[in-house]
Structure formats: structure tokens, C-alpha cells
Write a structure and sequence with these properties.
By secondary structure, this protein is of the alpha+beta class. The protein is built from 4 helices and 5 strands, in the order ββββααβαα. A hairpin with a 2-residue loop joins β3 and β4. The chain starts with a strand and ends in a 30-residue tail after the last helix.
Length: 128
């Protein structure tokens, strides 16, 4: 099997994921997973598709992350890994879909409108 690549997105984050057979190493922007995401919850989020399909030790994963914040980046990486696993083996798709890893979360930040302090917030009304 050669290298399989896929893209995952969430909010403003984009993850380009490259999966190849290996020992289970995950590298993000040339850093190990534990260095890039020091909080264990985000490490768990990135590994979720591998844990659900019992493939934690089967693949080496390289991820290029760009944009967004820490949570968006972790969830973008999760979507990218899930898509790559489906490309490798189509029988994993129902398991990943049931756990919600195949759906791209479409929610984005609403733009700020002119004449307002935020997207929805208005300036305080003054009667006099």
C-alpha cells in the first residue's frame, strides 16, 4: 500500500493527512502528537477514528495543520484521518459514520456587520 492522503476541515482549520503502513506514529507539522497537542483531550480526539477501528498500531500518520485554533485543528485532523481510513478500507465506513467522524461540521464564524460591535450584537439603545 502506498501513501493515502485526504483533507479534513473544521472552522478555519485545514488538515492534510498522509497515511502509510507503520507502527502507529502520528506526526503533526514535524512534531510528535504529544508535543503539538499537550492536552490529552485533543490527543484523544485525533486518535478517535483509529481507536474505534482498532488501527492504532497499523499506520504512520503525517498531518500538515494550518489555520484555526487548537480545537478546530484537532477536529480537522480527526476528519482527515477518518476519510483516509475509508479510502484504505471501505468496510470501516459504517463504523466511522455511526460514531460521527465522517460528517464535516459546517458551522463557521458569522461575519461582523457594519454599524454593529459584532455579528449579532447591537449597540445599547438610548431613548434620549
Amino acid at each position: 500500500m502506498e501513501v493515502v492522503n485526504s483533507v479534513g476541515r473544521r472552522k478555519a482549520a485545514v488538515a492534510r493527512v498522509y497515511v502509510k503502513p507503520g507502527k502507529g506514529n502520528i506526526t503533526i507539522n514535524s512534531k510528535p502528537l504529544a508535543t503539538y497537542f499537550p492536552l490529552e483531550i485533543f490527543q484523544y480526539v485525533v486518535k478517535q477514528p483509529l481507536l474505534v477501528t482498532d488501527n492504532t498500531e497499523n499506520f504512520d500518520i503525517t498531518i500538515n495543520l494550518d489555520g484555526g485554533g487548537i480545537k478546530g485543528q484537532a477536529e480537522a485532523a480527526r476528519l482527515g484521518i477518518a476519510r483516509a481510513l475509508c479510502e484504505i478500507d471501505a468496510e470501516m465506513r459504517p463504523i466511522l459514520k455511526k460514531n460521527g467522524f465522517m460528517t464535516r461540521d459546517p458551522r463557521e464564524v458569522e461575519r461582523k456587520k457594519p454599524g454593529q460591535p459584532g455579528a449579532r450584537r447591537k449597540f445599547q439603545f438610548s431613548k434620549r
